[in-house]
Specification:
By secondary structure, the protein is an alpha+beta fold. It has three domains: 2-20 and 47-119, Rossmann fold; 147-213, ATP-grasp fold, A domain (Dna Ligase, domain 1, 2-Layer Sandwich), CATH 3.30.1490.20; 218-402, ATP-grasp fold, B domain (D-amino Acid Aminotransferase, Chain A, domain 1, 2-Layer Sandwich), CATH 3.30.470. The chain is 36% helix and 16% strand. It has 14 helices and 13 strands. It has helices spanning 16-25, 31-44, 53-64, 78-85, 105-113, 122-128, 131-140, 157-163, 190-204, 253-258, 277-293, 332-339, 344-359, 397-402, and strands at 2-8, 67-73, 89-92, 148-151, 168-172, 186-187, 208-212, 218-224, 231-232, 236-238, 269-270, 299-306, 312-318. The strands form three sheets. Strands 8, 9, 10, 11, 12 and 13 form a six-stranded antiparallel β-sheet that branches. A four-stranded antiparallel β-sheet has the order 4-7-5-6, with helices on both faces. It has a three-stranded parallel β-sheet with strand order 2-1-3, sandwiched between helices. 46% of the residues are buried. The structure holds adenosine-5'-triphosphate (ATP) and magnesium ion. Adenosine-5'-triphosphate is lined by residues 146, 169, 171, 175-178, 181, 211, 213-214, 218, 250-252, 303, 305, 315-316, 318.
């Protein structure tokens, strides 16, 4: 039986984010309240990207079917505990704590000790946490992405006006989970841009990336696999009609943390997205191109939006995708997997198998047959496209992907 180290960062039970969301549920959120929530969130919730106990337990349970799981919380003692435990492979979902290379720390430490690990390497993880560097790499390879300028200080703004066309969209360069991304980031005029860039520079203490606004539909694409066998799972479409009347069609802070209420959940995701085959193929193409160019491994989630001409553009790449286990939480990667007939446990196990295969770590055959879950969520087999079709139930998902 192989020994699987499981590296994660666990969110404190009472994070500021949880508190904020609870407050927001109690009343309609006006401008002042939104500002307060956003400020509190950015000032205190350094743990927004970390995983909950529920997610960590669900992943550990899935891994336990393949080997002995050794939990290795990615805290200060992680290097020493990893060195002592010397697992055969590490399953990594740790988002990290300090600095702009935080997501790269666990993989770098594994490399230091020569221990195989799952997912992307330190270079890819750091690259994708810098939205501008990511877009430079994409552009260099001809992969469509909105034109942009980085504003490190207010004196950079004239360059923005000279280079880019309004309307524009501003974002902190190194964040995720829509930290610092509200409707105000959509700027119709240079005055709006000036005010928002000033706010973001002051509150997030990092450069601001200013992009041309992509006015079209939005999708997020889960990729599983490596090399030629990497596959896009059924595409998730953003249903902006679910947002409150008059809301802008963006999936930002308000949609993720304010308007999505437990008593009135936003029906934000449509999977598979209701788009024709030509657009499906075009989105899959840019997604897989981005995955390869950025050196993603095993899995990643890639956000895509259409430009004014209807062409898919890459918005950003998440090599550590969100993987909430409860279907009610509408987490995009597990949702896309379910629609493909891949259960949560199978998804986690596939990622580990892909990593093991890549690095020559022998991993036993599945202990039990693959069960196809969430039949209700899965389209009938005959209705699925070839790329998304599942295997015979007794095949493992990784066999399917690497065959
Ligand atoms: N150039 C753009 N044009 C139009 N909308 C944009 C643009 N960039 C970002 N957005 C909107 O803002 C949202 C959040 O942006 P982005 O995905 O870069 O942030 P994030 O916080 O890293 O997201 P995640 O929660 O996926 O980690 C996007 O889903 C999209 O709706
Ligand atoms: Mg995103």
């Amino acid at each position: 039986m192989i020994r699987i180290g499981f590296a994660y960062n666990q969110k404190p039970e009472q994070s500021a984010l949880t508190g904020n969301k609870a407050t927001a549920h109690q009343k309609t959120v006006d401008d002042g309240e939104l500002s307060r929530l956003q400020n509190e969130f950015s000032a205190t919730d350094e743990f927004a990207e970390w995983d909950s106990r529920e997610t960590i337990d669900a992943v550990a349970k899935a891994l336990a079917a393949l080997g002995e799981v050794i939990r290795l919380e990615a805290d200060e003692d992680f290097p020493e505990r990893l060195r002592q435990a010397r697992p055969d492979i590490v399953f990594n979902i740790a988002e990290g704590k300090n600095g702009v290379n935080r997501e790269a720390h666990v993989p770098a430490i594994c490399e230091f000790y020569g221990i195989p690990y799952s997912g992307s390497d330190p270079l890819t993880l750091s690259l994708c946490l810098d939205k501008a560097r990511t877009k430079e790499a994409l552009s260099a390879h001809g992969i469509p992405t909105a034109r942009f300028v980085v504003a490190r200080e207010m004196s950079d703004l004239p360059r923005v006006s000279k280079t880019l066309e309004l309307p524009l969209f501003a974002k902190p360069i190194h964040e995720g989970s829509s930290k610092g991304i509200t409707e105000r980031n959509f700027c119709r005029t240079t005055d709006e841009l000036e005010a928002q860039v000033k706010f973001l520079l002051e509150h997030y203490a990092q450069p601001v990336i200013v992009e041309e606004y992509l006015p079209g539909a939005e999708f997020t694409c889960a990729v599983l696999g490596n090399g030629k066998t990497a596959k896009v799972l059924p595409i998730v479409g953003m249903n902006f009609a679910a947002l409150p009347e008059g809301a802008l069609p963006i999936y930002g802070f308000e949609a993720k943390w304010v308007w999505d209420r437990p008593d009135r959940p936003l029906e934000m995701f449509e999977c598979p997205a209701g788009i024709d085959l030509a657009l499906t193929r075009a989105i899959e193409r840019v997604t897989l191109d981005a995955y390869r160019v950025l050196g993603c491994r095993d899995w990643s989630r890639i956000d895509v939006r259409l430009d004014a001409g209807g062409a898919p553009n890459v918005v950003e790449v998440n090599p550590l995708p969100g993987i909430l286990p409860d279907p009610a939480d509408n987490s995009c990667f597990p949702k896309a997997a379910r629609v493909a007939g891949i259960s949560y446990d199978e998804l986690i196990q596939s990622c580990l198998r892909l990593a093991a295969t890549r690095q020559g770590v022998p991993i036993g055959r599945r202990l039990k047959k693959v069960q196809t879950v969430s039949k209700a969520a899965s389209p009938p087999r005959a209705a699925r496209s070839r790329d998304h079709d599942g295997p015979a139930a007794e095949e493992s998902v990784s066999n399917r992907l690497t065959a």
